[in-house]
Amino acid sequence: MNQEQVKEKLLELDRGVEDFSVIFSGKASKKVDGLYYPDRKEIIIHNKNFTDDSQLLYTAIHEFAHHLHHARSSLPVSSRAHTNRFWDIFHRLLFRAEEKRIYVNLFKKDKRFVELTKKIRGDYLVENGRQMKELGKLLEQAYALCEEQKANFDDYVDRELLLHRTTAKLLMKISSMNINPAIGYENMKTVAGIRDESRRVQAQEAFVEGMTPDMVRSEFNARKEPEETLGLLMEERERIGRSIETLTRKLTKIEQRIIELKHEDDPREMK
Fold it and tell me: What are the residue boundaries of the structural domains of the chain, listed by start?
């Protein structure tokens, strides 16, 4: 697969994007498989790192996600390139690539991965979610007993259970919301952090349907990264304004110096 073919595959995933270049370095790299240069809008792929097209395309899609992130963000993208928003874009591209059969998901193709995934999710992640939900119910009983005995619940949790009180309250909250333990404890925490009830339900359904944690946080979590708020936009406008003023002053000085040098070379040009 050559550079042009890779670019066309990427465009099949999203054609409504600012133009970009795909460049094969012709080298192998021990540090990275690919790079993205936002100032030049270039995707660099160390093509000698790969033994098959699927591996190469995975890296190309990763770098393409960076391009989409930079091209469509109304604010400069953080120097911490792999943000929640980036992973959301990347995962959506991968799912789309699988649907279009552009990329083959090794984790679904290799039976060893399939069996391992089944065991991890079924025997551990789901079971952990169920146990944490049950723990929340027991903590509710402990809270009620503390209320009855006029005892301090936080003190009981801290000193007797050796459990942080913030964790205990979160577990009780999860239990009271009746969140589906099939999505796993970490994802249950994400759902519990969403204030709006209807969005909580939608987020839980999204997890059940197979959306990744970053995709769900980006779409449903009220505490997601503030990519476009009035305050941030105004700050960016001020920063750009200051930069324009500085560059204008520099340009004026350069133009004045050009005139002076021309005069020194040929005084007649000043007449």
Answer: 3-106, 110-220, 230-270
Q: Against a cut of 0.85, is the pTM above it?
A: no
Top-confidence residue, 262 or 137: 137
Evaluated on CA atoms 120, 121, 126, 132, the torsion sign reads positive
Instruction: Report pLDDT digits (tens) over 101-147.
Output: 999 999 999 999 999 999 999 999 999 999 999 999 999 999 999 99
Q: 3-106 is classed in which CATH architecture? A: 2-Layer Sandwich (3.30)
Beta partners for 35? 44
Q: Which helix (H) or strand (E) holds 177?
A: helix 165-177
Provide the token pair at 216: 């769900």
Q: How high is the pLDDT of residue 222?
A: 47
Sign of the CA dihedral with 50 first, then 51, 52, and 54 last = negative
Nearest to 173 by CA among 152, 155, 200: 200
Which residue in 85, 102, 72, 52 sits closest to 218, CA to CA? Answer: 85
Q: Is 209 helix (H, G, I), strand (E, B) or coil?
A: coil
* Three-state secondary-structure class, residue 135: helix
Alpha helices in 75-123 (DSSP H): 84-99, 106-109, 111-119
